[in-house]
Structures are given as C-alpha cells and as structure tokens.
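Project channel, design review

CF: Before we commit to the Infirmifilum lucidum constructs, I'd like one complete example in the thread so the newer folks can see what an input/output pair looks like. Taking Aspartyl protease family protein.
RD: sounds good, go ahead.
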Amino acid sequence: MGHVYVTARVGDPLRTRVREVRTLVDTGATYPCLPEDLARELGLRPEFKTSAVLTDGRAVDAWYTTIYLEVLGRGDLVPARVFSVEEPLLGAFALEALGLAVDPSTGEVKPTRSFIARA
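CF: and here is what came back for Aspartyl protease family protein:
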C-alpha cells in the first residue's frame, strides 16, 4: 500500500494556535506524535514525561500533551506524544477518536462512522 499522508489541522486545546500540517498516517503507532519544534510553535503544554517504544524496539522519553486535531473536517481533543520525530504522525488512537480508518484497497483515509465533534 505504501505511505499514506493526510493534511491535518493541529493546535493547542483552545485552538488559539492552529496549523495545517502534512502527517504520516501510521496505524502501527498508538498516539499522534509531534516534533518538538511544532509543539513549541503551537504553545503546547507538556503535562508529564512518559516512555514511548519505537518500532525498532528502542524506548525514548516523550512529553504527553493534549492537542486539538482535525482531519477531513472531524476535530477533537486527543492525547499526543512530543519527542524528536522527523515528521508528524497520526496514530490509531486519533483515527479511532475521529471515526476514520485507512482503506487498504485505496490507501485513502475515510470515515468509518458518523461523527459528532466534541471539541
């Protein structure tokens, strides 16, 4: 299927700073992951440090934070991890929260159910 990317709107929980970013859809990742510079730009508040296990098995320290995330017009507050990552990742938790999934036959992100925005 190859890599799947979507355009997402990412911001602080109050949406005072929101930026449109190209994100890699990583169904193997649990949470959205943001680069540290993007988190600083958005004024995200690090809530606590946690450990994140990467696909190669390494554990890294990551900040836990809450972000506003919108994909295909569906937006909500979701937990995210902030650490030294090359590009923003959209994980399975965020896809599920927004009622989205990757269609393996087309490689597109599509709605899985109706959605009512909570944020």
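RD: helpful, thanks. The chain has one domain: 5-111.
CF: Residues 36-41 form the longest helix (6 residues).
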